[in-house]
Every structure is written in C-alpha cells, then in structure tokens.
Amino acid sequence: MSETEEFESDAMSVSARLAAEALIVDVEGFEGPLDLLLTLSRTQKVDLRKISVLELAEQYLGFVEKARHLRIELAADYLVMAAWLAFLKSRLLLPPDPTEDGPSGEELAAHLAFQLERLQAMRDVAAKLMARDQLGRDFFARGIPEDVTRVRRVTYTANLLDLMQGYARIRTKDEFRPFVMDRDAVMTMEQALDRMRGLIGYAGDWTDLTSYLPEGWETDPVRRRSATAANFAATLELAKRGAIELRQGEIFAPIQIRRKPNDG
Amino acid sequence: MTDDVTRDESVAQNHDDKRDNDSLFEAPPMGEQERMVEAILFASAEPVTVKELEGRMPHGSDAAEALVYLRKRYEGRGVSVVKVGDAWAIRTAPDLGYLMQKETVETRKLSRAAIETLAIIAYHQPVTRAEIEEIRGVSVSRGTIDQLIEMEWIRFGRRRMTPGRPVTFVVTSEFLDHFGLESARDLPGLKELRSAGLLESRPPPGAMPGPETEDEDESPEGQSELFED
Amino acid sequence: MTDDVTRDESVAQNHDDKRDNDSLFEAPPMGEQERMVEAILFASAEPVTVKELEGRMPHGSDAAEALVYLRKRYEGRGVSVVKVGDAWAIRTAPDLGYLMQKETVETRKLSRAAIETLAIIAYHQPVTRAEIEEIRGVSVSRGTIDQLIEMEWIRFGRRRMTPGRPVTFVVTSEFLDHFGLESARDLPGLKELRSAGLLESRPPPGAMPGPETEDEDESPEGQSELFED
C-alpha cells in the first residue's frame, strides 16, 4: 500500500504521518483486532499481566482515529472492537452505576488482559512447537519400509477426507436437482382409488366425500388439497364404473357418495 | 485390517504349543524378543504399538520389556528408539539431520494462522472451532482446518455435549510423530501454561466482542445488542 | 564406551596415512562416522554406495571403515548391514523374515463407488441396500458391499421391520478406528463440511434441511425419480 500521494498532508507533519503510517500501512498484516491489540500492548513495555487496559483502549482508539484520518478503511470487526473499547473505557472511568447489572469494567478489562496473555502464550508455544525437530526435516523414518516381500496382499484404504468428500459429493447433488414435485405432499388418483375401493364396501349410506380423506392428510393445506383432488377424481372413476353413486345438493355443497345399492 | 489376519495365523500356530495354560508356553529368550522388536521397528516407517508388536511376536512375548533393552541399546547411536503416543518407532538422531538433505521431504509451508490453530488445538484439545476463534480473535479461515486434517495432524474428537453439539478437534499420533513427542503431555511449555491458568476455558463476562463466525450457532452470543447503534 | 576409544585410536592411525591428500579438515571420530553411516543407511530409500556415503559425510570421512564397524555391530541383531550390488543397505535378518508379513501389503485407494457407499452407511446407518441405491442414485454392486464387509468396515445390522425384512448395514468399530472417530455421530454434518471448506459453499435453492435433520433422516423419500434417469 503506497498511497502516500493520496493523503492531504494538511494537518499532519511528514514525520507524524510516517509514524502513523508505519503502524497503519500494515493493517492487512494484522490477524484481527485482538492481534492488533497485542501489538499495541507491546509499546507499554510491561508484563502482559500488568498491562493498563485503559491505556491500551486509548491506543487502539487512537489507532482507529488515525486510520480514519488516513482514509484507510478498517474491517467491521476492528470497528466493533473500537466501539466496545470505548464502552469499556467509559465503564472504567465512570463510577459504577448500581442500577446497572452485568460485569463491571474491571471484570471486562481483566478478561481482555487474559485474552491477550493467552493469545501471546499460544503464539509462544506455537513458535516453540515449530522450532522442534521435525520428522522428515531433522529426523527421519525408515527409508525402505517394505522389506521382505513374501506374500503380496492388496488392501484398500481411504481416509476421512475421502469419506467426507464422497458424502458431500452425493449430498450436493440434491442442491442442484431440477424442480420436481415432492411426492410426500402429493396423492395420486391411483392411490386414492385403491383406498376408496376398500372403504366403499363398508359405506352403504350417503357419506361426505371429505370424510374419506386419509389420516395425516387432513390438516396440512397442501396435502389436503392434493388428497381432495385425488379422492374426487377417484370417485368420478368409481361412479363411471358403476360402483358408487354421487350427489351434491347445490353448487359448492358437500359432495356425498354411497355404494350403488344393487351392487352388493 | 491385515495384521489381524497375521495375528490370527500366529495364534493358530501357537495353539499347538499352548497346552493347558498360557503360562506353560515358553516365550523365546528376551534377547530373541529384542531382535524381533528391532526387526519389526526397523521395517516399519510408522510407529508400531506394543499390542501390534506382541501380535506379531510368538505367544507369551513381552514386547514392552524387550523395548526397554532395545531403547537402551540404541542410546547415542545414529538411530534411536522413540515413543510416539502408545507406539514405538526408530528414527534417525536429530543431530544428524544435516546429512539427510536427500531424504528431506518438502512439507507444505504452513500459514501463521494454520500454525496458531494447530498449537491451539494441541494445547486446548479437545477444542471446538468457536473456541479456537475465541482465542485467536478472528474466524478460522476456510481451508485452515482442512489443511491440518489433510496433513493428518488433527482429527475430529467427540462432539461437545453443549447446545448444537459442535464437533471438536484433537491432534493425532501423526502429529506427535512429526514433532517427536511421546504424548500430548510433553508439549513444550504445557505445564507452565496450565499453572498460569491460560488453558482454562474462561467464558467472556457478558458482552465481549468476538470474531464474526459464519455459523450463527457457533458465534459467541450477546454481542449484537451492544453494537447495534 | 571403551570400544569407541579404541576406534578413535585406529582413526588417528589412519589419519597419518591420509595426511598427504585431504588434511585440511579433521574428519569426525570413527564412532561419529559410524553413527552417520547408520543414520544414512536407515533413512535412505535405496542402497547407498561408499562413494555416496562419503559424499554426504564430512570431508575426510572413511565410510568403508565405518561400514566395517557398523556391520560388526549388527552381527546377530534383528537387522543386518548387507551389500546389495556395490551399495549398502540395512535389511531384516533373514531368520526373522516371517515377522514381516505386515510390510508386504500393498495399499490401494478405495474406489469411488466404495467410498460413497461407505459414506452413506456411516451417515445413515442402519441403512438398507435399497436406501443406499436411492441416495447414490445408482445401483450398488454386490462386490462393493462384499469388499467393505471383507475389510471389516461394515457389517450387517438388524433387519428392517418392513416387508421383505431387508438387511441393514452399519459401520464397525474397525471403521471408527481406521478413520480416527470416537463414534459415527462425530462425523461432521453437511453444514460443518461446508464451513470446513470441504463443500462448495453455494446457497441452496429454497429451504434445505440442516445437517441435524439429515442425520436423522434415514431414507429421504420422494427423490427417486430424480436419480432414476
């Protein structure tokens, strides 16, 4: 980022600008606000346990202010942290409000210090870990592992990644499927016909067609609509075959059906 | 897998010798057992467990004892007998690494994020993704976990019994092997970290800003109200 | 170690003979050279010639002499230093060859069909063959199931209490062992696969069921038409 030309150097001296930039230019290099806070805390030159969180908050807010001045856009989480630190600062400075519950400023500050110390500790041990002797770099395994070949056997193997990717491959097929009707909400006429044939034998009297809706299909509107249509079509089919009679008192009145008397 | 077959075969052979009781069977002399362990460990590039060793050795063998002698025998030599988790391997002495340029395998350079994530998993295991993010203060980038799994340095542990049952990560024995660790307890600085309380999971008091996770359910709760203005 | 001392003396003697050519650098003591040869032979993927050994050892080293000592040291051990053509290698002692059956195994990658079948069983167990076919969208060959059973990664579960009482398949503890899982429930869900970067992250069209529901979903119905063509 060499955007120096773009800045108007009105308010700041060249040296001040350079100093601000030295920190800011590298925003990309920070791994998030906590990392930046950790870097800032080093300027206090004290043990992390003795760090002044208040001072740190001010440093951070100063940083954000400078970034704004230099027209560097900070990612949202940096601004979230700034807002929180401003809140923390006010909690630390103002006398505690007894009506307010939630953690005190000191508790929040202590946790932030803990987070910084923990992050620093993890960095330190990560470095220690990587500095260890490593297999294939500092020490080595057997170069000719498969020695005596008397019986050749083939085994097949796979690792977890293969397994998960295989599963993902199958399952993502669904996401790109062409539009199809989901069968579980659709009743076909054939299904209704099969059902009606069985039921109609018991119903000698006029019965409301809606009472033939199968269980589990009466409440969900989508399923109900499908079942009603299928039932109606099936009734027409049965009537056509002469198995049942149909009647309807008036338009939109309930449709009733019964077994054809002479049939049984 | 296959060693089961081998084991079964050797068991079958031993059946004849084994008359009434295991104790009646005579195991080979310890010197012989030591040779066997030596041969098996030399032949394998991967660490071999005591159980596997005994499965391949004649019935009644005591691989653990043979290992004690073997380990001693190789002290100060060009190769040494090392413990990896609950398994054993022979590895070249680290001080001779410089002779081995030809054998050096180019490992993929790990990013700083990957190294930190690995260290957090090693020291905090089993650890969830949300916890890793809490510690680092940023979200774990796509592919970081993937890369560590692919290198077989981490694997899935038990799911955490908390809402959402998030998966956890732990380090593998390949990880231990790679860094020459006998067990995860031997991680450098582990004791100090623990006594400093830096490995405790301390939930943030009330509203603390955390990384923005992609998975809503995993993100630390309670931060949104505070910053909504 | 007294024999090291004797060896050092003999090196000193040799030094006198070699004075004329390369006396600029002092070669390491013979004990050290022996360690080096040992480490190189151990780690090398191929037998190594004396010339190659010396090319890798510090200037002035005498690999041939170090080999004499090393060879002697391994006499009667579980492995021995042998000459292969004009090069040297460490090999299992011939009388222990029978222990090496495990090392004679050739490993091949499991076929895609087998991996997918295995994955479906792992995620949906207990699952019938018909259900596997419905999820995969293609028929599952008898050989694939047989192979997975033979590998002891899957086994028969309870029969399903539906017409025909079809057999179901479940994964075995060997499977969990191999894949480093504590239980099949620890397998990551679709959402987690996606966030770990293992899945192309594309917003699914419409409402997609989350990973939890999919885990429970034993046989997704109503999609058979889709896979039938």
Automatic annotation (TrEMBL), chain A:
Gene3D superfamilies: 6.10.250.2410
InterPro entries (UniProt xref): ScpA
Highest taxon of the lineage: Bacteria
Pfam families: SMC_ScpA
Annotated protein name in UniProt: Segregation and condensation protein A
Organism: Aliiroseovarius zhejiangensis
From TrEMBL, chains B, C:
SUPFAM superfamilies per record: Winged helix' DNA-binding domain
Keywords for this protein: Cell cycle, Cell division, Chromosome partition, Cytoplasm
Keyword Glycosyltransferase: no
Keyword Cell division annotated: yes
Ranges annotated as biased composition (Basic and acidic residues): 1-22
Biased amino acid composition, Acidic residues: 212-229
Coiled-coil stretches noted in the UniProt entry, renumbered to this chain: none
Pfam families: SMC_ScpB
Region (Disordered): 1-29, 192-229
Matches recorded under NCBIfam families: SMC-Scp complex subunit ScpB (TIGR00281)
Listed name of the protein: Segregation and condensation protein B
UniProt organism field: Aliiroseovarius zhejiangensis
Lineage of producing organism: Bacteria, Pseudomonadati, Pseudomonadota, Alphaproteobacteria, Rhodobacterales
